[in-house]
Amino acid sequence: MLASIIYTAFKLHAQPPSNVEIIDSTQLHLTDEFAEDNLGPRSNPDGSVTVVLVAHRYGFSPNHIELPAGVPVTFRVATADTLHGLHIPGTNIDTMVVPGYVSEITASIQYHEVVKHGSLDADGKVTVPIYCNEFCGLNHHFMWSRVTVTRTPG
Ligand code: CUA
Q1: What are the φ/ψ torsions at residue 113 (nearest 5 degrees)?
Q2: Ligand 1 atom closest to residue 57's alpha carbon, by position in its atom list
Q3: pLDDT for 62-75, tens place per residue?
């Protein structure tokens, strides 16, 4: 057993599945990426989207984002204070946000799945909550935000 662990770790370069990237949670506002003006979604040249979020007691910044369905979306999330979680119903986006680290998760939001969990508006856009799913203090259950999912043409 030990031999196989050593073999996979060193020979096959096996490592924990998540990305390990450290950040000073007390200085987020002084970084480029997590500064207030730079938060939220941005489109990449290949059509994918990167979303930068800050989790804090008790909410996410920004507190409402809009994302297209059916394209790869990468969330990069850091906490400004304590342990939080990030969960979007109807997707497999679900991660812990640990002080001192950047959490990164990539998924493609499926319109027909989020529509079961959100509210549909007249334009066919679905709004679902973004929940914190790690207990982070007295108002943990009030910590949520919203994502409006737009159907991609075709
Ligand atoms: Cu943040 Cu619970």
Answers
A1: -90, -45
A2: 1
A3: 999 999 999 999 99
Q: Measure the CA–CA gap between 110 and 88, rounded to whole angstroms.
A: 12
The pLDDT-based confidence of 153 (bands split at 50, 70, 90) is: low
Class of domain 17-150: mainly beta
Q: What residues does each domain of the chain span? A: 17-150
Q: Is the CB of 105 under 6 A from ligand 1?
A: no
Question: CA-CA distance, 38 to 50, in Å (whole number)?
Answer: 11
- List pLDDT tens digits, range 12-63: 666 555 568 899 988 988 899 999 999 999 999 999 999 999 999 999 999 9
Instruction: Answer whether 19's CB lies under 8 Å from 34's CB.
Output: no
Are 75 and 51 contacting, i.e. CB atoms less than 8 angstroms apart?
A: yes
How far, in Å, is the centroid of ligand 1 from the Cα of 139?
8
According to the model, what pLDDT value does residue 7 have?
74
User: What kind and span of H or E run contains 113?
Assistant: helix 111-114
